[in-house]
Amino acid sequence: MPAVTDGTMKEEWRRAALDCLLETDPVAKCQRTLALWQRCQGGRLALDAGARLPVPAMPGRPARPALVAPGRVPRRRFGSRAGRGILLHALAHIEFNAINLAWDAVCRFPGLPADFYADWSRIAAEEARHFQLLCGRLSDHGLAYGDLPAHDGLWAMARRTAADPLARMALVPRVLEARGLDVTPAMIERFRQVGDGNTAEVLGVILREEVGHVQAGSRWYFHLCARRGLAPLPLFRRLLLEYMQGRVKGPFHRQARREAGFTEEEMQMLEDMELRARTGTPGSAEGSG
Predict the structure, then answer these.
(1) Is the N end or the C end of the chain the one with fewer CB atoms within 10 Å?
(2) Would residue 148 count as lying in a domain?
(3) Is 124 inside a domain boundary?
(4) Is residue 284 situated within a structural domain?
(5) CATH number of the domain encompassing residue 164
(6) Model pLDDT for residues 28-44, shown as the tens digit of each residue
(7) In total, how many domains does the chain have?
(8) How much is the average pLDDT of 85-92?
């Protein structure tokens, strides 16, 4: 946990985070991010948690990759080296977005405890390292980030939840990013099966740290529910129905999700909602859980 100064230092934590968010060059964004986290850990920054910053709707991004509809993204197949390169590019794009999502949370939402800004600053740095690791694996496949098109689904939800940190915590880390907890173990095994132990090792590092990222989303979701006097389970259900029409993807990795802060009642609700969406069962999930 970084120390928070008394406000006498010249550099302000969240304004420095905004510089990271606005940076367009991926290499420079990672360098800025890692350097800022070091300064946070060293207690060399002031925190004005109440300041409202001019956070843009879109973060700083390079001109490439081209952003296309999800159906136009190249298919990710394990059967060939080229197909695995496509998958690695998609994963790198997710991690690049995750850097921006973490800094966006720091910059966009004022008036929260210092630990909130510490959590998401740390997460931004870990996402930057994940991006760097995946870019290294991309290079070994003859690719660089930006060589292939990508879609913008993750940031679309960030825009929709920009007005409310509670909705952001519920739907970005606890739904979209949590999906990685479900699918990454199988990806690790498949990379091992094709003899790519280096990528399997990288994905293992990412998976371990992503549990902590989703856990931070859970912690702040429950904190904000308590602060507002709201019951977490029915609200989570209502948000899933309002923002996603109850269309959640399974199967779920129960152990990883429990480590990441999901309750047993939430897991039962998610599994029921996923079954209804998959089978087309009439009725909503309003009465489940």
Answers:
(1) N
(2) yes
(3) yes
(4) no
(5) 1.20.1260
(6) 999 999 999 999 999 88
(7) 1
(8) 96
Query: Of the candidates 107, 131, 118, 133, which has an alpha carbon nearest to the alpha carbon of residue 55?
Result: 107
Domain that holds residue 27: 13-49+78-279
The long-range contacts involving 179-184, CB below 8 angstroms and separated by at least 24 positions, are 179/249, 180/94, 180/206, 180/207, 180/210, 181/207, 181/210, 181/211, 181/214, 181/253, 181/256, 181/257, 181/260, 182/249, 182/250, 182/251, 182/252, 182/253, 182/256, 182/257, 184/210
Instruction: Identify the pLDDT of residue 254.
Output: 97
Residue 113 lies in a domain: yes
Please write the tens of the pLDDT for every residue from 209-261: 999 999 999 999 999 999 999 999 999 999 999 999 999 999 999 999 999 99
Q: Cα(188)–Cα(202) distance, rounded to whole angstroms? A: 9
- pLDDT greater than 80 at residue 104: yes
What is the CA angle 49-52-53, rounded to 5?
105
- Give the dihedral of Cα atoms 67, 72, 76, 82; nearest 10 deg: -80
Do 119 and 103 touch, CB atoms closer than 8 A?
A: no
